[in-house]
Amino acid sequence: MPRIDAAPSFRRSINAFLLLLILLSASVCSAQNETANESTMVYGTWILKSIYPTQNVEGPSPAQQKKLLGTTIVLNASTLKACGQSVPVKTIKVNQVSSTDFLEDNRVRFSEVGVEGASITEIVINHRQSGTCFDAFPLPGQDIYVKNKNEILVYFEGVFYRALRKH
Count of CB atoms within 10 A of residue 23's CB? Predict the structure, then answer.
């Protein structure tokens, strides 16, 4: 009876499986690094420069809103500083938000806050719940939309602030 050598075909199957496993691992690592890079992109000091006029003000009075203009938000991997307070960063969540979802969630169009494109990256710190600003609201800087590496939108209780990176 002739002997059949299955070793070459078995080796090819194992090599294909290992290659697939390596590619899958690289893909997962790449996605994790992309999320980490997006969140670390906002680390630094940001100055609240202006308020976008929208119809969706929920919380702070106009006087309180203006008090925040010119103030800074400092964010790094361990701390968020804003409104005269410092809180530990416990969670960071990165989301891609479409213009439709943004409108649905905030009742504001991208065009009202100077966003171009079909989506924007949102970074949520501490589930938007740390600290106290004006004795009634969580700290600003816990809900950020990344426009580019030097400009972000800071969503604070219905108010959108334009913030620029301090160099």
Answer: 10
- Six-digit token string for 159: 């108010």
Q: DSSP code of 4?
A: P
Closest CA to 117 of 100, 95, 141, 93: 100
Q: Which residue has the tokens 């809900």?
A: 143
What length does the chain have? 167
CA distance 100 to 103: 5
Distance, CA of 75 to CA of 141 (rounded, Å): 8
Whether the per-residue pLDDT at 152 is higher than 50: the answer is: yes
Query: What's the predicted TM-score (pTM) here?
Result: 0.76
Tokens of 155: 């969503």
Q: Do 160 and 52 form a contact (C-beta atoms < 8 A)?
A: yes
Q: What are phi and psi of 35, to 5 degrees?
A: -65, -45
Under the banding of pLDDT at 50, 70 and 90, the label for residue 144 is very high
